[in-house]
Amino acid sequence: MDARNIELPRTLMRKVLILPGGRAWLDSWGSIANRYLEAWDLVLELEPGVAPWSGHCAVVLPVACADGRPAVLKITAPHPEAVSEPDALALWDGRGAVELLDSARDDFVLLLERLDGDSSLAALPLAETTEVWGSVMRRLSIAPAGAIDNPRTRDPRWLSLPSVADQAEQWTDTLPLEWETLGRPFDRWLLEYALEVCQVHGAVGRRRDHDVLVHSDLHYLNILPALESPRQFLAIDPKPVLGDAEFAVAPMLWNRIGELSAADPAAHLRDRCTDLALAAGLDPMLARDWSVVREVDNALGYLREGKAGDADRSLWVASNLLRKPLLNLPPAERLSAP
Question: What domains are defined for the chain?
Fold first, then answer.
């Protein structure tokens, strides 16, 4: 089967068209896929007329390796967040994350072990997800091999990873500027709380000896069961950073808000944050604080894009984590889903 005859999902096409060079990638991705199907001696296992799996900016094709092993070929539209994905997967080496079998960095092509792409952690009841997520996080939270500041001992793959502390330093400049530019769209105290967290845990307060490899987009749909062992879950599609493991908790809080307890969703949200942190062996207060920062940043980004409903969701999460709900926000059951 010629990969050029595969029709991409429209949602993927819309997302890719926003990227620089997105149109060119849409015109060429099939030829890229064909090249690596041949180069890596792969057999495409997608039935005619069946839609491929897709990520945020990638198409994922089921294939069989020369030895018969089931795998997937992931072809990603080039964008900065995808640059360090093969380095992170190589460092994890199958511990908590999908195994990287081969890669072509210049073309943003990965050959990965095949997981159950038709299921995810989103299929489990909310209460059952905590321990699974915590187990995955414990395996993913690996520390740099050797002294990261010593060029003689550090693994060069760690050098491609952006730092949480550096991002925090950048936020101390960009968050207040955006808040002012957007007309001070929410209470100053929430902005100042986020800035204080960034200042305390930025370059000056960085706990370098606590730095680990962090999957910063570890939400329900990015955790899939293994093909042969459905009880074993593995992470996919990493957006890797180096820093506090607690930085990873936030995506589990801004998703599935509609499933929080109707009696007191805000209290349930705070309990979720604590329970997730404890399940992964993390500091619940630091998990809360990084989640607040990330949601403040998300809210400003959504407002910049004119997505008021998404901004309301982020502000609801951030302010309720701190037990100071902002006024004029919709109740939890009326918040838009991500």
Answer: 3-82 (no CATH), 121-334 (3.90.1200)
DSSP classification of residue 226: B
Q: What would the pLDDT profile of 285-332 be if each residue is shown by its tens digit?
A: 999 999 999 999 999 999 999 999 999 999 999 999 999 999 999 999
Q: Which helix (H) or strand (E) holds 110?
A: strand 109-113
Distance, CA of 197 to CA of 164 (rounded, Å):
12
> In terms of Cα–Cα distance, which of 231, 243, 239, 256 is closest to 282?
243
**What's the number of CA atoms in the CB half-sphere (13 Å) around residue 200?**
11
Contacts of the segment 47-54: beta carbons below 8 A, 24+ positions apart: 48/1, 48/5, 51/7, 51/9, 52/6, 52/8, 52/9, 53/117, 54/8, 54/9, 54/11, 54/12
pLDDT at residue 134 above 60? yes
Is 100 buried (19+), middle (13-18) or exposed (0-12) by CB count in 10 A? Answer: buried
Looking at residues 19-30, what average pLDDT do you find? 93
Whether 207 has a pLDDT exceeding 70, the answer reads no
Of 148, 72, 174, nearest to 116 (Cα)? Answer: 72
SS (H, E, C) 255-308: CCHHHCCCCCHHHHHHHHHHHHHHHCCCCHHHHHHHHHHHHHHHHHHHHHCCCH
**Amino acid at residue number 3:** A
User: Residue 71: how many CA atoms within 13 Å on its side-chain side?
Assistant: 22
Residue 102: beta bridge partners? Answer: 111
Cα–Cα distance between 291 and 235 in angstroms, integer?
20
Q: Count of residues for the chain?
A: 338
Q: What is the pLDDT of residue 50?
A: 86
* Cα–Cα distance for residue pair 303/48, rounded to 1 Å: 41
pLDDT value, residue 261: 97
d(CA 93, CA 87): 10
First-to-final CA distance of the chain: 35
pLDDT band at 204 (very low <50, low <70, confident <90, very high): low
16: which 2 tokens?
Answer: 């890719």
